[in-house]
Structure formats: structure tokens, C-alpha cells
Write a structure and sequence with these properties.
The model has no long low-confidence stretch (mean pLDDT 94). The protein is mostly helical. The protein is built from five helices and two strands. Strands 1-2 form a two-stranded antiparallel sheet. Helix content is 72%, strand content 5%. The chain has one domain.
């Protein structure tokens, strides 16, 4: 059940990120848009689960040298990659550019996900 909650939270965060200029969600009905957001949330989760640990390990020196600010660039690049993958799968979710759309979109997704994860229980604390 926890994975479904995480996907739903990420989908909501991606929906909020569409308010950033350069990130768009097109499509017909509301149901189509919800399906697109869920699919992009799954892509987002897979990309972050596979690539982010590898990038952090390989780029450890850059994280230390930049005091962690390189994370903004890496998160933006991963967000741009998610937009590209969605485009390749013919999903109507587009990220137009790296700066400011991808970087700002990644920041918005991170903040909204953090806040929603604080508010919504994920089922792990059901003692």
C-alpha cells in the first residue's frame, strides 16, 4: 500500500509542478491527465531509484566541493530525463528546457512531496 501512496504523492507533486512555466500537461479529459500523471510518477520513481544513487556515488566529490548545490543541477537533469522519457512514450507531459523549467520543476516536486509525505501517513507507523 505504501508504494501506491508514494506514487499518488508524486503524481500530485508533478501536477503542482505543471504550474511552472515550461512544464506542461496536455491531453483531453481529466481522467487522461490523471493517468498521465500516474505514469510519469512511476517513471520519475524508477529514474530516481536507479540513477540517483549511481550519480551520488560517482559524483561524491562534486557534492562535497559544491556543498551540495550540485544536487540542484542533478535533480534538474533527472527531471528533464523524465520529461524526455515521457515524450518518447507519447505521454502528454513536457519539460521544455533545463533552466528554469527542469530545475525549478524538480525543486517544486521535492518541496510538495516533502510536505505531502509529512501530512499523509504511508502505513509504516501503524503500531
Amino acid at each position: 500500500m505504501g508504494i501506491l501512496i508514494k506514487v499518488a504523492i508524486t503524481a500530485v507533486a508533478l501536477w503542482v509542478a505543471t504550474l511552472v512555466p515550461g512544464i506542461s500537461l496536455s491531453g483531453g479529459s481529466t481522467l487522461t491527465k490523471i493517468g498521465t500523471l500516474v505514469a510519469v510518477a512511476v517513471i520519475f520513481g524508477v529514474v530516481n531509484a536507479i540513477l540517483k544513487p549511481i550519480i551520488k556515488t560517482v559524483g561524491c566529490a562534486f557534492y562535497i566541493f559544491t556543498l551540495g548545490l550540485i544536487a540542484l543541477v542533478i535533480n534538474g537533469a533527472l527531471f528533464l530525463l523524465v520529461g524526455w522519457i515521457a515524450e518518447q512514450l507519447d505521454l502528454p507531459f513536457q519539460v521544455d528546457s533545463f533552466w528554469p523549467a527542469a530545475v525549478l520543476g524538480a525543486v517544486v516536486v521535492a518541496i510538495v512531496s516533502f510536505v505531502l509525505n509529512l501530512v499523509v501517513p504511508d502505513g509504516k507507523d501503524d503500531d
